[in-house]
């Protein structure tokens, strides 16, 4: 008596996903950078995304200080969301200016 291996729904979905995503993966092969951008800091390499995040957070704190002094902070709804978006925007700008990404 010969037993056939059963291919369940999970086996068919994974095979379908591999077949569907393989051309996309081949197309994205040119998007790989040769090395990740980093900054030398006290003899160790510091990732650039961390430096850009720090720049965004410091910038958002400075913007908040200006908004509080101008009285804009009290009138803003969703303050946390607004300051997170400001920090992200400043971090992205620092990344584009500093590293061209």
TrEMBL record:
GO cellular component annotations, sorted alphabetically?
membrane
Q: Which UniProt keywords apply?
A: Cell membrane, Lipoprotein, Membrane, Palmitate, Signal, Transmembrane, Transmembrane helix
Give the top-rank taxon of the lineage listed in the UniProt record for this protein.
Answer: Bacteria
Residue ranges annotated as transmembrane are 43-68, 80-100
Keyword Transmembrane helix in record: yes
Task: Give the main localization category.
Answer: membrane
Q: Could you tell me where this protein is found in the cell?
A: Membrane
Q: Could you tell me the membrane topology recorded for this protein?
A: Multi-pass membrane protein
Keyword field contains Nucleotide-binding: no
What protein family does this chain belong to? Answer: Belongs to the YtcA family.
Q: What is this protein called?
A: Uncharacterized protein YtcA
